Amino acid sequence: MTGGDGAHGAYVHIPFCAVRCDYCAFATWTDRDHLIASYLQALWTEIERAVDDGLPPVTSVFFGGGTPSMVPAAGLMVVLAALPLASEAEVTVECNPDTITPDLLAAYRDGGVNRLSFGVQSMVPRVLRLLGRTHDPASVHRSVELARTAGFECFNLDIIYGTVGESVADWETTVCETLRLEPPHVSAYGLTVEAGTPLALDPARFPDDDDQAAKYELADELLGAAGLASYEISNWARPGHECRHNLLYWSQGDYTGFGCAAHSHRAGRRWWNLRTPERFIAAVEEGSSAEAAAEVLDAETRRLEGLQLQLRTRTGVPADALEAAELPGLVEPHGDRLVLTRAGRLVANEVALRLR
Question: How is domain 8-249 classified at the architecture level of CATH?
Answer without folding.
Answer: Alpha-Beta Horseshoe (3.80)
